[in-house]
Amino acid sequence: MENNQVENTTNFNKQDDSANEQAQIRNKPKLIISSYKIQPKMVEAGKDFDIILTLYNTNAQNAIFNLKVSLDQASSTEQVSGNNKAGSETAYGNEGSVFTPVERSNTFYRSAIYPWNYSTETIKMNVLPNTKAGNYQMSVNFEYEDYLGNQYQTTESIGIPVVATAAISTSDINIDELFVGEDTNVSMNIYNTGKDNLTNFMCKVEGEGFDVDENSHFIGNFAQGASESFSFNMNPKKEGPLKGKIILTYEDSKGEVHKEEKTFKKQVQMSQNENVDENGNPIESTEQVEQDFNMAPVIGIGSIFLIVLLIYFIRKRSKKKKNKELDLDEN
Predict the structure, then answer these.
(1) Are 146 and 174 members of one domain?
(2) Could you tell me if residue 4 is inside a domain?
(3) How many Cβ atoms are within 10 Å of 119's Cβ, its own excluded?
(4) Alpha-carbon distance 235 to 264, whole Å?
(5) Quick one: which of 79, 130, 201, 249 has the fewest CB in 10 Å?
(6) How many CA atoms lie within 13 A of 294 on its CB side?
(7) What is the biggest distance separating any 2 CA atoms in the chain, rounded to whole angstroms?
(8) How much is the pLDDT for 57?
(9) pLDDT in tens, 183-223
(10) Which of residues 122, 141, 163 is at a domain's end?
(11) What domain range includes position 120?
(12) How many whole angstroms separate alpha carbon 34 and alpha carbon 39?
């Protein structure tokens, strides 16, 4: 990563005026960072990276002598998710630096940089493994002299983006015994075991030969060290082996999309419910059919008896009524 934008604060410190005061020059030399690179561009926690600094003496006449350059961490803007407020700044100045130089100190020296000249230095650094993802600032401090021995101090800042390693782990997929046409709960626990806060976390289930009540679940922000769970009810449609998979997708702090799949297999048995067929459809039991069949003649005979009895009473009543009418006529 190359960046020409740096913050610059300069304090031209002269030695105190005295009887032995040195002569001062009007055209004071000035040193800046003309550009810098971070390799790789996105620094990962726990790994090494290079800072390539290019220094430039902007003065057209006066050289810079006895240059000492030191690097110190300034502050950071930590990436947050979940209930934390996005963009909150956290200064790490009192917590110690997350960067350490590799096989050297944080200081280097140049005897001179002449007018309008450049000087490049590469510093290998390491990021502590437990460093949180964020944008970190590093101060680059200059101490140098002009040709008369006057001393100057300059501080500039560079930015170093740090990303953490994204990693998740899961429990075993918990599936009870499966029966045709019966709902069974399936569940799995998910853990963010990496050093990164994950976003757009989604869980899905896919497969054939079964229905589910909820085939996807959106978690969203998944903070470092947090745990979640994904569960659904599965209803197998036929007897035999059943296969499926749970798909987990998410983004890390670099914006990269990750995809992981967890497969599961299970044998589906015939339903223990006698009123369900092999396809999960309700059926009548054999005993019920036999009972209905055996009761049919009884019901038929009883119906005929009732009809005959009803006809008998109707005729008897009609005859009685007719006889009564005849008696009235004779009188």
Answers:
(1) no
(2) no
(3) 19
(4) 15
(5) 130
(6) 6
(7) 172
(8) 97
(9) 999 999 999 999 889 999 999 999 999 999 999 999 999 99
(10) 163
(11) 31-75+95-163
(12) 17
